[in-house]
């Protein structure tokens, strides 16, 4: 029998939403838990890393200021609990899976954390719960990792347990597009699943775009980040084209953006990083290979993105060459190593690849980033140059500018190369 709206309302009344468990308390899970808690539900935050849980309790985590304020209040309240005990998820009315989905060294999906989280969820699932995948993954993930094993255990999906996909849309460090103001896509396995999951997601944002299935929601997220990847690759290519004509690419982009339709501005840079753009399109490409489908545009865009750090290093080498110098023995300071401004995250940051490539060519490389004290590179650990003197370096490569910090010392550096194309020294002087 097809579920009706009235049946959904009855289900909601029978399954009062008082507590939510969040599996994975990282860059996505912690802001999600704080948003839900502020909406009035109890939180069971689950993470297997005791170090992460301790960091959350002490407030030593990378969050926007508004979420830091929420965390300061939440950690002292009884209904905001942090634990490494996976069995605690059985206590919650709803469970959100927010674990990372990365790639291995061969650019294949690393499904280990997600598979483990879903296996634990199956082991502790109980009648009446709503289970929501927020991790970005391939099409059919909810079906394979949740629906099939739940059915095998005797659960009736959409009647006594509810499964949905609502991929996260959190932009770390971004205070403009907050979680509450950003619409979420939601697709349930059945209409009842969608209705039950919407009660949860509506606590995070009033704007929920419901789709016909979990698979639609999963593919939507892959399309979103593939769209960004393709356009970033195009912006980088136009930066190279502009350089060949001795034209400022930002002036070209700003001019094109004056068109009120048919254009969306993307900007060139030193490369991409973080947990989305370098990773998510590969989930799509991996799945397409299995079905013998081709996506040549996406494939080429991801190849171009992977090659971007090499182009940045070549740009440094070419600039030095015009002055009769080479990279060997040149002192290069990489300015900013996080993958984007305002965060402490160096995951997949192009700065790490650039540093390795520079070192391989004989450059003496250091970095300055007020948000990152040490990084791991091929040669081992590299420590932050906390107070750089521009005269100590032959080249300063601008990779990431951290808001609220001064960069007037760059005026003393003999050569400054802006890989962001948008650095204005006057805006960041002390």
From TrEMBL:
SMART domains: UDPG_MGDP_dh_C
Pfam families xref list: UDPG_MGDP_dh, UDPG_MGDP_dh_C, UDPG_MGDP_dh_N
GO molecular function, one term: NAD binding
Gene Ontology BP annotations: polysaccharide biosynthetic process
EC number: 1.1.1.22
Domain (UDP-glucose/GDP-mannose dehydrogenase C-terminal): residue spans on this chain: 333-425
Keyword annotations of the record: NAD, Oxidoreductase
Name of the protein: UDP-glucose dehydrogenase in hyaluronic acid synthesis (EC)
Signal peptide location: none
Family of this protein: Belongs to the UDP-glucose/GDP-mannose dehydrogenase family.
